[in-house]
Amino acid sequence: MSKIVDVKVKVLEIPLKTPWQTFLYATATRAHCVVRVVTEDGIFGYGEASPAAAFMGETAYTMETVINMYLKQAAVGQSVLEISRINDLMDQVIAGNTSAKAAVDIAVHDAAGKTLKVPVYVLLGGKSRQHVELAWSMGFKDFDASLEEAKEYIRMGFKIMKVKVGKNIEEDAKLVGKLREIFGPDVPIRMDANQGYTPGDAIGLLNRVARFSPESFEQPVRKWNLEGMRHVRDHSCGIPIMADESISSLHEAHNTIQAGCADYYNIKVGKVGGLYRACQVAAMVEAAGYQAAAGSNLELGIGEAASIHFIVSQPAVCLPSDALCGTGLHTANLVKNPMTMQGGVLNCPELPGLGVEVDEGIFK
Q1: Confidence of residue 340 (pLDDT cuts 50, 70, 90)
Q2: Which of 2, 126, 189, 340 has its CB surrounded by the most CB atoms within 10 Å?
Q3: Distance separating alpha carbons of residues 355 and 338, to the nearest angstrom
Q4: Distance between alpha carbon 152 and the CA centroid of its chain, in Å?
Q5: Where in the chain does DSSP place strands (E)?
């Protein structure tokens, strides 16, 4: 079996077209950590993750250090096809750091697919669906700018408009109400507080917007407050609650599902530890009878491709996903053949590995 002989890391800071803001943070650039795995057969596999410090407790720069000091030793010398073993070894050498592990795991999957000459989704079990329906995630802007962005992306074909909330109940309810007035009943509106509310205020917002029929309310309270999120779910006026930051690892996902905190789950490949762990989380969600989406940490073409392979392969990940936001928000990309949406849906690449051509200039 083809063994891994080297792991290289590169951090690139890429400007955004406009500043990005959520309850947790605001930024005008994004640092991306790109990993290149090299096998003894001369095959290159690429991975990427781009966490925000306030969101994951990692940055591209901490990832660089962790990969070089800990994860590289776990991967080098292993067969590129022994994906589960590599993940276990990464967990043994350092706890947490799931975004750093995700970048390595994605690169290993890319190299494994190229070694076997199959798309990555084949390694994940094959296709459970032919294409991915997309949602658009809209950061904080002033009221009028938010309305214009929402109208623009719905015109482009996105299936769901996800709006960031968490400023205050009045402003958030006003925005959701106006969007419902503009779009009518046919465009689902997903709210995402990024942990911005107390349980009481989250329930207060739900009471005000229930008549606008939101599709779901994502991460209303702090990630650690499972009791609080369950309380919100119990008083949600029938609006589904979605967990995101509360499922930042395999074991957190288990605890959140067991606690009965949510109806939907946002499984981000770059958040939970990579494709291998994301599939494990999806299996738990499926076994519990729930549904999931796959979100974005503003990854570019490598991370986006990994998310699409994940979505098409997992039955539980059936909700429209905001997995293609990074390319639309950045001024440059990491790949020469970025994926493109048509009519609000995206087809998975069919070339071996992730199916994207990475700009090798990154490592020069």
Answers
A1: confident
A2: 189
A3: 10
A4: 22
A5: 4-21, 26-39, 44-49, 131-133, 135-138, 160-164, 189-192, 216-218, 241-243, 264-266, 291-293, 345-347
pTM of the predicted model as reported, rounded to 2 decimal places: 0.96
C-alpha 76: how far from chain center: 27
Q: Do residues 311 and 294 touch, judged by C-beta distance below 8 A? A: yes
| Mean pLDDT calculated for residue range 88-98 | 98
How many residues are there in the chain? 364
Strands 241-243 and 4-21: unpaired
The mean of the pLDDT values for the chain is 95
Helix, strand, coil share of the chain (percent; to 5): 45, 20, 35
Q: Which range, of 229-233, 278-282, 344-348, averages the lowest pLDDT? A: 344-348
Nearest to 285 by CA among 306, 310, 302, 304: 310
Question: Which amino acid, one-letter code, is at 275?
Answer: L
What crossing angle do the helices spanning 199-209 and 226-234 adopt, rounded to 10°?
A: 30
